[in-house]
C-alpha cells in the first residue's frame, strides 16, 4: 500500500487527457514499469489528435470510447489511501455524467458495473466504500432513479457486514426519498422489502415491523402479494412482545381486505377485546397460531397488559382496586402487583401502587384506540381541568382583593 506521501492528487486541474492518464496511473500503480507502459500505451495513442483527427476535447465520440475502455479496467478499490480512492471514483463518476445524460442506458450500465465492483471488492475498508457511495448518492439529483441503485448497494454492503446501524437509516428519510425518486411503484415496494429483510437479518424485528407497515402500504391492496404480506404483518405485530399499538394496521387497505381471515378477527380482539374474547378465539383457531408461529403464552401476556391498560384508561385520576384488576386479568390478587409493574414497564400505564389501600392510583394510561368514547372522555377531563383552573383563579383574585383592602 502506498504511503500518504506517495498519494496522487486525483482532483488536480487538467485537461481530459491529463485526467484520464491520471486515472490510468492509479489503476496501474502496482504494475511493473514495463507492464504499466504497455497498459497505458493504447490509451495514449487514442488520446492523440493526429492528422485528420479532431482535438480530443472536441471529439465526444472518442472521449466516450476511451472512457468505456478505462471503466473495464476498474476491478476493485485499488491500492491507494482513502483519500485517493474517494478521489479516483469521484473523478470517474464526474466523467461519466459529463459525457452521458444521467438517465441514459450507458450510465445505468456503467454505474451498475462499478457499484457491483465496489460492493464485491474483497477489501475490508468499509468506511471508504460507504464514503464513495455516499458521495455518489448525494451528488445525484434528488429525483434521480439512480439513487435507488446506489442506496441498495449501501444497504447490501452494510447487511453483509452486520453493520446496518452505520447507515443511520430513518423512516422519514425513506419516505422522503420515495416521494422524490422517479421510480415505479414496484421498485418502491421492492426497496422497502429489502429494508425489511435487512433488519430481519440484523435481528431487529421491531424496526423491521415499522418498515413492513410501509411495505404493505405500498402494495396494490387487492394483489395476492398484498394479502400474504398483510397476514404476515398482522402475525408479526401479534408475535412481537413490544408491539401494543394495533391501530396503524387498521389504516392499511391490504389488512382490511383480509377481514375474513381468522388472523384479522384475532387482531380485532387485541384492539378492543379482553382475555375472555382471546380464549374464545383460541378455542376455535389454535392451528392458526401454530401456522404463523405465534406463541400462546406471549399472546396471553399481551392481552392481559392491554386489558389492564383499558381498565386504567377508564380510571385516570382515580384509584383502581387490586380486586378489579385481578378480575379483569383473571389472575390471583397476589399477582396483581407483578402485572402492574409489567404494564408500567411496557409504557402503557403510569401510576402509583398502594399496598395499604390495595389499589393503583392512575395518573396516565394509553388508550388502545382513540375513537368517539376516548374523545368524550378527554373532553370531560379538559372541562374538569378548566373548571379547576377557574376555581384557582377565583381564589387568587379574591386573595389579591383582600390583600389590597388590608393595605389601605
UniProtKB/TrEMBL annotation:
GO biological process: formation of cytoplasmic translation initiation complex
SUPFAM superfamilies (UniProt xref): ARM repeat
Superkingdom field: Eukaryota
Main localization (coarse): cytoplasm
GO cellular component assignments: eukaryotic 43S preinitiation complex; eukaryotic 48S preinitiation complex; eukaryotic translation initiation factor 3 complex, eIF3m
UniProt entry tagged with the keyword tRNA-binding: no
Function: Component of the eukaryotic translation initiation factor 3 (eIF-3) complex, which is involved in protein synthesis of a specialized repertoire of mRNAs and, together with other initiation factors, stimulates binding of mRNA and methionyl-tRNAi to the 40S ribosome. The eIF-3 complex specifically targets and initiates translation of a subset of mRNAs involved in cell proliferation.
Name of the featured protein: Eukaryotic translation initiation factor 3 subunit M
Species of provenance: Psilocybe cyanescens
